Amino acid sequence: MDTKLIILCYSLTFLLGFLWGLSELLSRYREIKLILYSRNALLYLFINGMASVLVYYFIPKLNISFGVFTQNEWGKIILAGLSAMFILRSSFFSYHDKDSNKAINVGISTILQVFLDSAERSFDREHSTNKLKQVSLVMKDIDFTKAEKNLSVICLNLMLNVSTEEQKKLGESVKNLSQDMDPLAKSIALGIILEQVTGVELLKQAVECLGLSIKITPEKIDVFQQLGQLEKNLK
After folding, report:
1. pTM, whole model, 2 decimals?
2. Of 17, 70, 72, 148, which is the most exposed, with the fewest CB atoms less than 10 Å away?
3. What is the per-residue pLDDT for 191?
């Protein structure tokens, strides 16, 4: 086989394995930017791609035959990509852990799960940091007592696919916000709860739509500033 054709076949095989891994991560995390900026996620994708390359290499070496799939290079590429996906996610055996009362799988999938868990923690940290900044800007001038009901109702009515159970959980989360919390903290917490359903952009538009009806009045702003100054003086 021509050298250029060999390189092309191996490259396509790697790409197929890479894309299988990427589709799995996208189904979990839905934000490709987070995936491409995470070292653990990229390593996970690289392992998927290299596994496909190894399977492609061993198909002719071990005389593996799967009918029409192994009669041409395109079939071998597809077979290698699919086979690597199943091999990497397989377990040799499982045992029941009495302490955790869970079935623990032992195999290559266990190693991959380490990278997945690490990538997930990395995604959560970055995602949470970005969302906190965005929600804080949207909710910084919002009066919780005014927005608690009005903003929640607007956001839920805008979202047509929110189930009754999700609405109930959201309502309970809002009610469970501590009365002892700082007013600004409660407003931000309300924004974080609603953002999980609406997203930042829709939350921002809902806040802008309600306008002054949910904003902190100038009198309250003066009181907050005086309280803040008093705390500084006491320190």
Report:
1. 0.51
2. 72
3. 87
